[in-house]
Design a protein that fits this description.
Elements lengths: L1 H25 L10 H21 L10 H24 L2 H9 L1 H11 L7 H18 L7 H28 L3 H28 L10 H27 L2 H18 L1
Helix pairs in contact: 1-9, 1-10, 2-3, 2-8, 2-9, 3-7, 3-8, 4-6, 4-7, 4-10, 5-7, 5-10, 6-10, 7-9, 8-9
Length: about 260
Amino acid sequence: MASDLFAWFLNVSTSVLIVFVNKVLMDNSWGYRFTFATTLCSLHFICCAIFVHAAQALGLGTPAKLPWKETMIFSVVASVSIASLNLSLLVNSVGFYQISKLLIIPFVCLIEYVWLGKKFTTLTTMAIITVVSGVAIVTVTDVAVNKLGLVIAAVSVVTSGSQQILCGTIQRKFKLTSNQLLANTAPMQGAMLLLIGPFIDQRITGTWIGSFEYSLPALQCLALSCTIAVLVNVSQFMCLGKFSTVTFQRLLLSHTKAMLVLL
């Protein structure tokens, strides 16, 4: 129970904090103008890989191998998920970004109902409807939608929901801990995004990463973003390995994160 509560608290706090840190890092008007969201994702995963493998080397975890096919599938889906979420935060308002994340709830329910044959109680269904409706009503005044932002948000909903289902399914199927799954997938995700990230970022923003004007405050903010990302990933994998995707991660965590971000 204590470990469950710790995982919940760590995921909520770091997930809320990283939204604002990344917004400061990437915002063009008042931030540090690091508008390279996909490249930022690669740095996050590289830092995660270093952290998890260092922990295993120090005896804080037991290494385990995940089959190549599952590693590749998960890495591709998760890479698109986190990249599209960061791009959504870059091109959309915080309000619309938060709405799009909450729409993962009905998507996950649909996938689990259609493909996994999972049944949901009336109370769970009503809770899902209440969460989505409530956040939509609260944030509707902050919504500023454009076509690009809408497409990126839609991609983030589909891939993020799929990634969360895969995370719990793979951990239970192969009996992996959260850190073992992260150790297998984070290096591949970091490498994939590092190769294609700068080109995607240039396509979206029209700016090459080499033209970014680095400063000590900007580098400090970047380092803080990477540090928080490690905690977000570790805690999220912990939660998805322990709890039902819908019942815990989507209903409790997302609702709490949404309220804190909006506050």
